[in-house]
Specification:
Shape: globular
Number of domains: 1
Distance between the termini: 31 Å
Length: 176
Amino acid sequence: MRGLEAVQSVQSVLFRAGFPCPQPLLGPTVIRRGFAVAESLLGAGDFRDTHDRTCRQLIAEALAWHLELARAIGRPRALAGAWSMYATDRLWPAEAHAPIFDFDATADGAKWIDAIAARAKPLAAQPGEVLVGHSDWSGKHFRFADDRIAAVYDWDSLALNREAAIVGAMRPGAFV
């Protein structure tokens, strides 16, 4: 619950600064064996092909703005527990985060990905400022209207990490 409270606190700061994220309306509330939150609906705009250069630029600019705002937020301890590939010797988690991924079945075809990750991991893990960052900054979490981002979703992905690791995880075209 503390993690969701921290997420909503950060999200409120971003919303008040004009960042295109939903406004938290109701903090974490116990529902049966879990928790729920309520936030404003940002339904304007549409999903786009984020491989498009304009979309990628907007996404990168939004990440820079998000991280700049995050510097003033501090480092909520409740966001420190998220899994990070930089806090372990492994390249990837022991188990996939979704059942659609089968690391064992695809290992042979993914060796090139592992090789790139093995080279990148030490670079992104170098010392640096730790701040609050959206750890799933991918195209599937954006809606666009005209030439702007109308909404950024999935704020429960907030975590504390180094800026290089947050930026290195950016995937503008993921799941478009």
